[in-house]
Specification:
Two copies of one chain form a homodimer. The first copy, chain A, is an alpha+beta fold. Helices cover about 40% and strands about 30% of the residues of chain A. Chain A has helices at about 1-25, 45-50, 55-60, 75-85, 125-135; strands spanning about 30-35, 40-45, 65-70, 90-95, 100-110, 115-125. Chains A and B meet through helix 1, strand 5, strand 6 and helix 5 of A and helix 1, strand 5, strand 6 and helix 5 of B.
Chain lengths: ~140, ~140
């Protein structure tokens, strides 16, 4: 069992490295958010740029502080609701620092017993062009 | 030490889940390739689409069989060379099945002692538009 665990450890350290490289190579602006704390657990350079800060600065920050929704809207609720919905889970928010309107794609998932969100942020004014480039 | 390993195991299983979710939410077409075997170890739906197959179909396939370079060019060599270069590591290749010209961004990295490539594939004719949407 010890050996199996050590093998898993090696295997998973490998996955952690891949994860880092994948985040770095992605042009999609990606942020992971822990729902229980509301904090950004990881994000890439594209996400930091769209939110108007640095990766170091924003890692651990409260995601809801970086975004504004409609009046009286709880941003995390809005995201979690979008993540739970079927089909195209997208919702509109604005990056607070840069005042950029965003279309945010959300997936809600569970890892190690915790509810997490992964958010892909597109500038709303470029969202249509981005979709077109895919087809 | 046993407990520490078990804790690492939990932590890393969490990373594996995040990795899967991240690949799925990315619109960037991403493939991981093991350099020693030349095989695709993981890819997402966007990558499968650009290569003209399914994720199941292409996972484990020889990456070089899916791409063509210039005459007499070894595709893996070309990718590894791009991955080793400084600055913008991009190289032009064509998806064999769909005959789509691609601009491939490459990062070479080492995980668990193995050399790996992560490749981000853009349709070459849309590369300019994609870059523009980022700025």
């Amino acid at each position: 069992a010890q050996l199996a665990l050590e093998r898993d450890y090696e295997l998973n350290r490998d996955i952690a490295t891949r994860m880092r490289v994948l985040l770095d190579i992605s042009r999609d602006a990606i942020a992971f958010v822990a729902l229980n704390t509301g904090r950004i657990t990881d994000l890439n350079g594209s996400a930091a740029q769209i939110l108007g800060g640095s990766v170091e600065d924003l890692k651990g920050a409260a995601f809801a502080d970086e975004l504004t929704g409609g009046a009286g809207t709880d941003v995390l609720d809005q995201l979690a609701r979008a993540g739970r919905s079927d089909g195209a889970a997208r919702t509109e928010l604005t990056a607070r620092r840069t005042r950029t309107p965003l279309m945010v794609g959300v997936t809600l998932f569970r890892a190690a017993g915790e509810r997490m969100l992964v958010c892909r942020m597109d500038r709303a004014d470029h969202a249509a062009a981005g979709t077109q480039a895919l087809n």
